[in-house]
Amino acid sequence: MADKFDVIVIGAGPGGYVAAIRAAQLGLKTACVEKWIGKEGNVVHGGTCLNVGCIPSKALLEASHKFVEAQHDFDDIGIQTGDVKMDVTKMMARKDKIVKNLTGGIAGLFKANGVTALEGAGKVLSSKQVEVSKDGDKAVYEADNIVIASGSVPVEIPPTPLTEGLIVDSTGALEFDETPKRLGVIGAGVIGLELGSVWSRLGSDVTVLEAMDSFLPMVDSAIAKETQKLLKKQGLDIKLGARVTGSETNGKEVTVKYTDAKGEQEQVFDKLIVCVGRRPYTQGLLGDDAGVKLDERGFIFVDDHCRTSVPGVYAIGDCVRGPMLAHKASEEGIMVADIIAGHKAEMNYDAIPSVIYTFPEVAWVGMTEQDAKAAGIEVKTGAFPFAASGRAMANNATEGMAKVITDAETDRILGMHIVGQHAGELIAQGVIAMEFGSSAEDLALTCYAHPTMSEAVHEAALAVEGHAIHMANRKRK
C-alpha cells in the first residue's frame, strides 16, 4: 500500500490544481493526480483551460485582434502601417509558448506548496481509495478526503463525425496551420463565436450555424441584440434556427446539410468546427463500488458544498452542476479545501461572471431583465452606450453598452450585462456589487476615475433613476 494522504485531488485543471494548492496551504498532506499528455509527451497540468481552452484561445484572439487593428483601425488614429501580414505559424508558436510557461508554472507551484504530483489516470474506489494507473502500472493510495475535478470534453454529434484536419472540435480549431478560406462553425455559443472571430479576422469566410432561434439566450436581450449586430458587421454570417442534419467529406472539403425556416440547405467549407457544448468527463473515473452517484445528464451529483453521495468525497468544476467556467471550478476548489480543513466556507452561485472574448467583449453576471420578469420581479434598468464615453472615443472603441438591472422595490442590483471593450474587466464591478448586496444607488454614489471605460457602468447605475449625466432626453422616473 502506497502513502496515505489527507486529500487526493483527481484532475489538475483550474479546479483541481487550485484545490490541491489550497489544501496544502492549510496544512493537509495533499496529492494531485493528472494524466494529460502534452505535446512533448510528458504529463502536464492545467487541464482543458490552460492546454486547449481559455489560455490558447485568448492568445489567438489577442493576436488576431491586433492584426485587424493594424490592418483597418490604425489608420483612423494616424498610424501608417502599409501592407500588414499574419504569420500563422509564428502566432501558433507564441500560443504554445504561453501554454508551456503556464502549465510548467503549476508544477512549480505544486513543488513550492508541497503538493505531491501523481502521474496517471485516477479512479475512485471504495473506502476512499484512489487507483492511479499509467502505462500498465497501477498503484492504490488511501485518502481521508477525495476531490474529483475531472473536467469536461467537447460534445460530438452524429451528423458531423470528427475527421482529422477537416471536421474538428474546439481543440482542433486551435491547431490550424493556415487560414481556411471557407470556415463553418456549428454552435453560436461562447466557444463558437470566439473561434469564429479568430479565423474571420485572419481572412476566413465564416458561417456560424446555430440550431436555436435566439442568439445568446443567456445574455440580456438588449446586449445580445447589440452583440449580434456587431459580429455581423465584422463579417460573421450567423444563421439562427439552422439545425445540422448531415455532412459529407471528400478529403479536402466538407459539405454540411442543415434545415432552416426555408427548408433543406447545404453549404461547402474547407474546415468545420463543431462547438455544440461540453459534457462531463467521467470515463473510467469511478469504480463499480465507489458509491458516487451521477445525475440523469452524467454529472456527478453534489450538494451546495460540492459533497457527493459518499462522505469525504467531493466533486467540483465541469463534472458537476453549474456553469462550465474555469473560475467557477477554482472557487469551488477553494471552498472544498476550506471545508475539509474544518473552516466554514460558502460560494455565491448567483454572482459568477461569464465572458465572451470577442471584440468587443461580452460579459454578464446575475439575472437578465427577462429572467427577472419571468420570476415575477418588477425591475428597473439603466443603460449607457460607450458611444457617449470620452475614454471609449479616445480608445477608438465606441461600440456597445453597459446595462444594470435592479429590483424596482429595493434597488438591489440583480444583474449587470456589458458589451464593449474590456467588458471582461468591467464586469468585476457588478460581481463585487452583487457580492456585497449593493444597490444601484451605491454605484451611483461612487466616485469613478475620469476618463475611464468604467464610467459607463457608473452612468448606467445613474440611469436607473433617470440621472445619467452624459445622456440627453433622460427624465427622472
From TrEMBL:
<dbReference type="InterPro" id="IPR012999">
    <property type="entry name" value="Pyr_OxRdtase_I_AS"/>
</dbReference>
<dbReference type="Pfam" id="PF02852">
    <property type="entry name" value="Pyr_redox_dim"/>
</dbReference>
<keyword id="KW-0285">Flavoprotein</keyword>
<dbReference type="InterPro" id="IPR023753">
    <property type="entry name" value="FAD/NAD-binding_dom"/>
</dbReference>
<dbReference type="InterPro" id="IPR006258">
    <property type="entry name" value="Lipoamide_DH"/>
</dbReference>
<keyword id="KW-0547">Nucleotide-binding</keyword>
<feature type="binding site">
    <location>
        <position position="210"/>
    </location>
    <ligand>
        <name>NAD(+)</name>
    </ligand>
</feature>
<dbReference type="InterPro" id="IPR001100">
    <property type="entry name" value="Pyr_nuc-diS_OxRdtase"/>
</dbReference>
<dbReference type="GO" id="GO:0004148">
    <property type="term" value="F:dihydrolipoyl dehydrogenase (NADH) activity"/>
</dbReference>
<dbReference type="GO" id="GO:0005737">
    <property type="term" value="C:cytoplasm"/>
</dbReference>
<keyword id="KW-0560">Oxidoreductase</keyword>
<dbReference type="InterPro" id="IPR016156">
    <property type="entry name" value="FAD/NAD-linked_Rdtase_dimer_sf"/>
</dbReference>
<feature type="domain" description="Pyridine nucleotide-disulphide oxidoreductase dimerisation">
    <location>
        <begin position="352"/>
        <end position="461"/>
    </location>
</feature>
<feature type="binding site">
    <location>
        <position position="318"/>
    </location>
    <ligand>
        <name>FAD</name>
    </ligand>
</feature>
<feature type="disulfide bond" description="Redox-active">
    <location>
        <begin position="49"/>
        <end position="54"/>
    </location>
</feature>
<feature type="domain" description="FAD/NAD(P)-binding">
    <location>
        <begin position="5"/>
        <end position="333"/>
    </location>
</feature>
<feature type="active site" description="Proton acceptor">
    <location>
        <position position="450"/>
    </location>
</feature>
<keyword id="KW-0274">FAD</keyword>
<feature type="binding site">
    <location>
        <begin position="324"/>
        <end position="327"/>
    </location>
    <ligand>
        <name>FAD</name>
    </ligand>
</feature>
<keyword id="KW-0520">NAD</keyword>
<dbReference type="InterPro" id="IPR050151">
    <property type="entry name" value="Class-I_Pyr_Nuc-Dis_Oxidored"/>
</dbReference>
<dbReference type="Pfam" id="PF07992">
    <property type="entry name" value="Pyr_redox_2"/>
</dbReference>
<feature type="binding site">
    <location>
        <position position="277"/>
    </location>
    <ligand>
        <name>NAD(+)</name>
    </ligand>
</feature>
<keyword id="KW-0963">Cytoplasm</keyword>
<feature type="binding site">
    <location>
        <position position="122"/>
    </location>
    <ligand>
        <name>FAD</name>
    </ligand>
</feature>
<dbReference type="GO" id="GO:0006103">
    <property type="term" value="P:2-oxoglutarate metabolic process"/>
</dbReference>
<feature type="binding site">
    <location>
        <position position="58"/>
    </location>
    <ligand>
        <name>FAD</name>
    </ligand>
</feature>
<dbReference type="InterPro" id="IPR036188">
    <property type="entry name" value="FAD/NAD-bd_sf"/>
</dbReference>
<dbReference type="GO" id="GO:0050660">
    <property type="term" value="F:flavin adenine dinucleotide binding"/>
</dbReference>
<keyword id="KW-1015">Disulfide bond</keyword>
<protein>
    <recommendedName>
        <fullName>Dihydrolipoyl dehydrogenase</fullName>
        <ecNumber>1.8.1.4</ecNumber>
    </recommendedName>
</protein>
<keyword id="KW-0676">Redox-active center</keyword>
<feature type="binding site">
    <location>
        <begin position="187"/>
        <end position="194"/>
    </location>
    <ligand>
        <name>NAD(+)</name>
    </ligand>
</feature>
<dbReference type="InterPro" id="IPR004099">
    <property type="entry name" value="Pyr_nucl-diS_OxRdtase_dimer"/>
</dbReference>
<comment type="similarity">
    <text>Belongs to the class-I pyridine nucleotide-disulfide oxidoreductase family.</text>
</comment>
